[in-house]
Fold:
Amino acid sequence: SGIAIVAITRRRMVLVKTQAGQEALKDRRGSLSSRQRSAFILFDGKRTTGEILAATAAMGITQDDVQTMIAQGLLAPLSGQALAVPSAAAGTDSASAPVTTTGEASGTDLGTIASPMEGSGRSPKERYQAAYPIATELTA
Structure:
């Protein structure tokens, strides 16, 4: 159950671009594919990882892509958050001790809201069409 908690926690995580990430975006260097780059732009410190994954699901962006950006030092948790690790969650019972990364209300499960199959009620194509203008405006 520790892995499931980590997956939900990661979807609630708010990530921001690091200085290295800003420079990579500005200089168009690095190992980001065009689809990863489009998703990377959306990490603004306001949206959760789950929301961004939902918005970019039609492009094929996955949690693995986000993990790659974190591993490359392009993304980092918003101040006051820590990256969740399975060993930290493995000793807790998920029913009695839900894991959260911020002091925000824990009643809102953003991992569920951002699920590509449920939540918004929009198809992946509709989510992509809604996210595309935002991404192109941010890169202009």
